[in-house]
Amino acid sequence: MTVGQKERLRMLCVRLHRNRQVRGSHGPANSQQPPGQGTSPKDTAALTFARELLEKHGQVPARSIQALRDQGFTDGASAEIIAHVALNIFTNYFNIALDVDVDFPRVALHQVA
Question: Is residue 106 assigned to a domain?
Fold first, then answer.
């Protein structure tokens, strides 16, 4: 994965986490929220997969992995996406448990019509 792809995954996780905090929910994210757009179809596929991974708590269908393969991701790269999502989840849990101040700008949420 490129540095840009990793950063977009991180920001997607932050945005979804903040959205859940605002709603006071730990269930699936609002389906109206955009899945994240990359700078290429490959980036968008990675972000779409990451969002699905979060919403389905890891229980993604085989067709989701195949969609990554169709965009040129190897199984190793798919595993790396899963690892980055998991790392961000645990980072969020850590920050919530210890009430850590966030030291980066708030991510704006946008409603999709």
Answer: no
